[in-house]
Every structure is written in structure tokens, then in C-alpha cells.
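[stage:ingest] chain + small molecule (NAP)
[stage:ingest] validated
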Amino acid sequence: MVGVEDDELMSYFLKDKWVLITGASSGFGAGAARAFGACGCRLLLGARRVDRLEQTAAAALEAGAREALVYPLDVASTASVTIFMEWVSSKTNTLDVLINNAGGAHGLDPVATATDADWEAMFQSNVLGLLRVTRAAIPMLLKAPGSSIINIGSYAAHVAYEGGAAYCAAKAGELKITQALRLELAGTGVRVSTVDPGLAETEFALVRFKGDKARAAKLYEGTQPLTAEDIGETLVWVASRPAHVNIDEMLIKCADQAAMHKVHRRPKS
Ligand SMILES: NC(=O)c1ccc[n+]([C@@H]2O[C@H](COP(=O)([O-])OP(=O)(O)OC[C@H]3O[C@@H](n4cnc5c(N)ncnc54)[C@H](OP(=O)(O)O)[C@@H]3O)[C@@H](O)[C@H]2O)c1
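[stage:predict] done
[stage:export] C-alpha cells:
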């Protein structure tokens, strides 16, 4: 946890700032909304499940958000991104923070048996969706020097694992997009970061295993994974560095995950 004085300083930097979060209906996106909300930010929240977005917005307002506005967004569709960004433009001319979080993994099948549908879903959201939203948001970010694009990558961008070929490739793509964007935006005042989490307990595993709750729960058995709060707090920290500081890449894992294939698990008591 950060100290009280640090909390106050971060709120000072972020108060009243416009923060756009994709994939805010659950997990890290919802955690980010609560964390930026606690700093008094004005939130623009998108995802496909609007009922869940409304729950996120209510929690963010309770945490202290100045505003928490929601609108449907499917980052896999250019038309949806265009309509969403028109809605964003109707609320504000400038954007201070863009959190490209929408994404996830679909399936854990080896290449030999994986499906086109899973591969396409992963590239649509994690790679193309991030590109689409970023392209549309850049003009608004340019109007707010010191603004930040923070992409949610993954430990999977750095270390491959069996059954993860397409997801690892998609997140490696996210890492390269982040690096290219930083070059393209150098000197504009727009900062570009990637926060790359390891094992974290959200709806990620439930989505990956297509609703199989028992299989999803097994992933976290005996460990203390990262939480949505851990990542929300980290994103606030990255965004609230002084304007001349760019956190390029942050790999963040739970202490139990020493490596991709070495996760400490406690025996059942
Ligand atoms: N949990 C982990 O272990 C972990 C580790 C590293 C990285 N990550 C990454 O962290 C990000 C957030 O995942 P999470 O762990 O918070 O999982 P999550 O709880 O499943 O949240 C994923 C979010 O992405 C949204 N989303 C997915 N596809 C979308 C689309 N086409 N258009 C708009 N929104 C979409 C979902 O909203 P709707 O379904 O309502 O659209 C949901 O809000 C993802 O990019 C994931 O790859 C997760």
C-alpha cells in the first residue's frame, strides 16, 4: 500500500482529470475506475456489458469520482469504437489518461488444436482494439500535455507457455505497439506506458475457460494472486508521475509467482 502522503499527492495530480478506461465492466478495468475515482477523476467507461459498467460507475462515484459516465464499446469493431469516441468527444475536448485494458485470453489449446474463433477474438481485442481506440484518442490526448496512454500488457508478452501461443503473441504485439507509439509521440507531451501483470484473480480465467468455474478456480488454488485493486493502484501511480517522467514498462507479479512455471502453492489446510 502507498502511504497517506503519497495518496494525497496522487489525488492532487489527478483530481478532475479525464480518464478513459476500456474494459471497465470487470477486473482490472473496474479496479482502475475505483482507484482513479478515489482521486476525484472524471471517468469515461466502456465495455460491452453496460449493466456491469453501471455497477463500476456506481462504485467509482462512491469512491469519490467527480463523474463516472458509461457507454457501450466493442473494441473489436471499428464502427463501435467510432461511435464510442464520438460520445467521448461530446463530453470533453481533452483526455488526460487512456487506459487500454479491454482484452483477455480465449482457450488454452495448443496450436495443433486451437480454433480460428479464439485466435481472432484475442487479436481483435488485445491488438486491433487497442490500436483502434488509441488512434481515435490521440487528438484529444495531444491537447493535454502530460497526458498518458497506459496499455495493459501481460507477463505473457515476455514468457511463452504451452497453450498460450496466440495470447502470448497478442500481448507481445501490445508491447511492440507501446514501444512504437512512444517513438511516434516523442516530444508531444503524451507519455506511453505498459503495465504487464502476471497471475491475477479477475474474470480472466473464467473467460479463458469459457465459463468453467472449477477450472478457473484451480488456477488460483493455494496462491495469493494479484487483485484488481493492486493493478488499479499501480495505474494511478504510473499516471500521477510528474509530466517529465515516463514509466516505460512495468512487470508486476504476485510474490508467489517467481516465474511463469514456478508458482508457490500452499497445501489445503
Ligand atoms: N487477470 C490476469 O491474470 C491478467 C494478467 C495479465 C494481463 N491481463 C490483461 O488484463 C486486461 C483485463 O483483464 P482482466 O484480468 O481484468 O479480465 P476480465 O475481468 O475478464 O476483464 C476483461 C475486460 O475486458 C473487456 N473486454 C473484453 N473484450 C472486449 C471487447 N471486444 N470490447 C470491449 N471490452 C472488452 C470485458 O468487458 P465486456 O465483456 O463487458 O466487454 C472486461 O471488462 C486484459 O487485457 C487481459 O489480457 C490479465
